[in-house]
Amino acid sequence: MHFLSPPLSGAARRAAPGRAAPRLVNVGAVLSQKRYEQVFKEAVSQANALYGKDKFKMNAISVTHKANAIQMALSVCEDLISNQVYAILVSHPPQSNDHLTPTPVSYTAGFYRIPVVGLTTRMSIYSDKSIHLSFLRTVPPYSHQAQVWFDLMREFRWNHIILIVSDDHEGRAAQKRLETLLEERETKTKNRNYENLDQQNFDFRRTPKAEKVLLFSQDTNLTALLLEAKDLEARVIILSASEDEAALVYKAARQLNMTGSGYVWLVGEREMTGKALSEAPDGLLGLQLINGKNESAHIADAVAVVAQSLQELFEKENITEPPRGCVGNTNIWRTGPLFKRVLMSSKYPDGLTGRIEFNDDGDRRFATYSILNYQQKPGRLVQVGVFNGTQVEKIIWPGGETEKPVGYQMSTRLKIVTIHQEPFVYVKPTKSDGTCKEEYTVNGVLIKKVICTGPNGTIPGTLTRQPIVPQCCYGFCIDLLIKLAMSMNFTYEVHLVADGKFGTQERVNNSNKKEWNGMMGELLGGLADMIVAPLTINNERAQYIEFSKPFKYQGLTILVKKEIPRSTLDSFMQPFQSTLWLLVGLSVHVVAVMLYLLDRFSPFGRFKVNSEEEEEDALTLSSAMWFSWGVLLNSGIGEGAPRSFSARILGMVWAGFAMIIVASYTANLAAFLVLDRPEERITGINDPRLRNPSDKFIYATVKQSSVDIYFRRQVELSTMYRHMEKHNYESAAEAIQAVRDNKLHAFIWDSAVLEFEASQKCDLVTTGELFFRSGFGIGMRKDSPWKQNVSLAILSSHENGFMEDLDKTWVRYQECDSRSNAPATLTFENMAGVFMLVAGGIVAGIFLIFIEIAYKRHKDARRKQMQLAFAAVNVWRKNLQVLSQRLV
């Protein structure tokens, strides 16, 4: 049964002189009821009055839905295509469960590329253009309700949701649509910095997140499925299911007490009709497309869009005739794809159902929804708002609540991840009974320890393959965790990060995809709820996780090994260079010789004044040497002073010279022996040895840490980064030990850690000014319900002095302070050379006394020999005299 418009009148068929007759354009329609055929006819007449003019005139041909798909396909061929229709309008059948009736229309017309305009068909399958080639519609599919859900989540600031969807095409389409919106929103917010926003604006801008997606089918145990949802933090449940499936879900949820106060049920249009509405919980929030079932309005809008597109087509293109009938005809309509593109690009702002535009799938882009609230007291759905930005009226929420639920349940058992980094987290083995040994700090404070599981070792990054065993953790961050747990009323279980890393992004299998490792990866992967560790706050991490307010402010500094001065035996000679010592020694002997010569040749010298005096009373060369050394060493001169005026002038000048030399030596000796300091250190990040790296000076940081990220991001530090990248260490502990072992010349790391290490290990020292100032914060997943409470607790701890106490207990205590600030004193090591000089003098004296004794003995023996020889000669002479006298 079909309806044809009456034939054109003779006047209409006669063309005006000089003008061609308007082209007859048949437009078909498959309507849900016969009464809409007249509506269709009137819509075509109104369109003819507005569009076409002398180029075309539309003619309405309509049929109603048939009982089955085969009859419907035959009717399309015999009643519509045989009349060469340019387009076919198709409504949804009156039976809500009959989803196949529009399909034969779409398949049959799509084969010939005849555009099909859906009127009230909302199933998502019709968006698949690989199946429905020529289908477009004036209503959005059910999956587009995800856009309204997403906007409502943002409007009510629900940042945690649970998505429960049926495992069919409709459910998966809704899931995909919502997940796409969430991902796009997250991408947009990654590059934004909300650090200076207040909490209210920050909550509005942060990204909603699906905590869990639960799929179900006819065989799914709904009770077990909903129990899984109940264990999650989120309390906002979005349901996408058919009418019958929704009714079963509501019933199971009611039995598990999941429809009361604190919960939010957000659904679409199918989930609050018929059986589903009878089981719906009080406070259900749903959507209904305005004019979604107003077939008359959609007929008028669809006819107007077709007429507008035909006018554009006729003005620009040569239109070929559509196919005539299906029997024996396998040729597609060549103009059909073009006509479809023109239809999809058309814009009709003044439709009875609102603004009409189409997306690339042929679905309507702009739609208006009523926001409905199921309230049991009136026992009906109450419209509380319209999805177009207008104000939402009062809503009754599950449990009869009038206040908007927060949308989540805060778990009181948190999984905490941390990392071994002294003094913030110490790691020690447990006792044999599995408990932690009680210890006290140097200030007498009892150390609070907690059991933490992790690799069997204390150096991160090297023992990741070791078995996971219970260990004892304590330190600055553990005390802070205990304080937060007490003030915020939660319990916790602590574990050490498996790979020993703070967290950075790395490529997966050499692809462009990046994933976080370390503590960041465990937090984002759901293995931890909170990071309590010296985790540096930076922009890269803040894009993916939430940071609390800083619990400690710090920056980067440089750790080097302290050059401890070593005193040698000749350290007392260090004030003067060897050249000066040589000149002083030469001067002593030159002056002594000059004194001897001046005193000897002077007419007033002891040699000339009294020649009868003993020569020993005159200034000998040895006496002059004694005088010269005595004046220089200030040993006092008892005798042997020069007598001549010229020699005494030289002696006075020499005494002044000696006074200056001795005073200078004494002053510099104190500087070298008492105030000796290390050689020139690194001056800071701009030191030439850092800015112009070489293999003679090696510096590094920790791999895949915030410091590594900082140097990688800074263009002006790229040269330094390339040098560091080759030498970076797996952990701070390894790098610090390398500095102590002289394998690493400088280590760049967090100032709080390095200053503590330098205060505990006296052979280390930090140098240069702080740079890249930042802070340590507690990390949580995006939109964590704990963020605000943790930040408030940290601010309170700063105000009441708790953080100051932690600093004094763990960070500021310094082993090396008393040594470095003690008055500088000389030790035996400093003056050992002087004692060795005395010992050398003693040894030299003893050696010389033996020489003198030997010389004396040798001299005495010769004298005795001479005496004996003289005595023998005298005896012989006497004997000769006696003999000569006798002979005479």
Automatic annotation (TrEMBL):
The chain crosses the membrane at residues 580-598, 649-675, 831-855. Residues 460-525 form the Ionotropic glutamate receptor L-glutamate and glycine-binding domain. InterPro entries: ANF_lig-bd_rcpt, Glu/Gly-bd, Iono_Glu_rcpt_met, Ionotropic_Glu_rcpt, Iontro_rcpt_C, NMDA1-like_ligand-bd, NMDA1-like_N, Peripla_BP_I. It comes from the Eukaryota. The record marks 712 as: Interaction with the cone snail toxin Con-ikot-ikot. The keyword Signal applies. It catalyses: K(+)(in) = K(+)(out); Ca(2+)(in) = Ca(2+)(out); Na(+)(in) = Na(+)(out). One of its GO terms (cellular component) is postsynaptic density membrane. GO terms for biological process: calcium ion transmembrane transport. Residues 449-813 form the Ionotropic glutamate receptor C-terminal domain. Its main location: membrane. L-glutamate binds at residues 534, 536, 541, 706, 750. The record marks 682 as: Crucial to convey clamshell closure to channel opening. Gene3D superfamilies: 3.40.50.2300, Periplasmic binding protein-like II. Belongs to the glutamate-gated ion channel (TC 1.A.10.1) family. NR1/GRIN1 subfamily. Receptor for glutamate that functions as a ligand-gated ion channel in the central nervous system and plays an important role in excitatory synaptic transmission. L-glutamate acts as an excitatory neurotransmitter at many synapses in the central nervous system. This is Glutamate receptor. It comes from Oreochromis niloticus (Nile tilapia). The lineage of its organism: Eukaryota, Metazoa, Chordata, Craniata, Vertebrata. The gene is GRIN1.
